[in-house]
Amino acid sequence: MRRPVSRLVNRPIQVHGLCGEIPQVFRDGGKWHRVDCVIDRWIEMGDWWADQGPRVVVRVLTEDQALFDLEFVDERWFIYRVWD
């Protein structure tokens, strides 16, 4: 049985079409991804000793079946993790 593998990316992305707090379309490099469904959403606390506030993480599945964890921190969106 193949286990899911992920890699941390943490790069900024361009986001369009928010539905509530969830991006509907985002651009990673030169490629646009359309969110097909939201798998999960949670809040992680930042490092209190570094004065970091909470951040929102959203796991999404795109139309082309790619799985991403997107992170909203300091008023910006990032790809936090990519799942293979």
How does the SSE layout of this entry go?
Blueprint: E1 6-12, E2 14-19, E3 22-28, E4 31-44, E5 55-62, E6 67-73, E7 76-83
Antiparallel strand pairs: 1-7, 2-3, 3-4, 4-5, 5-6, 6-7
Describe the model.
With 84 residues, this protein is an all-beta fold. It has one domain. It is 0% helix and 68% strand. It is built from no helices and seven strands. It has strands spanning 6-12, 14-19, 22-28, 31-44, 55-62, 67-73, 76-83. Strands 1-7-6-5-4-3-2 form a seven-stranded antiparallel beta sheet, with no helix packed on it. Strand 3 and strand 4 form a beta hairpin. The radius of gyration is 13 Å and the shape is globular. The mean pLDDT is 90.
Helix-strand sequence: EEEEEEE
Overall mean confidence score, pLDDT? 90
Oligomerization: single chain
Total beta strands: 7
Distance between the termini: 14 Å
* Domain tally: 1
Could you describe the largest sheet, including whether it forms a barrel? 7 strands, antiparallel
What is the topology, as strand order, of the major beta sheet? Answer: 1-7-6-5-4-3-2
Q: How much β-strand is present in the residues?
A: over 45%
Radius of gyration (Å): 13 Å
Percent in helix: under 10%
Content-based structural category: mainly beta
Low-confidence region ranges: none
Shape: globular
Question: What would a concise description of this structure say?
Answer:
This protein has 84 residues and is mainly beta.
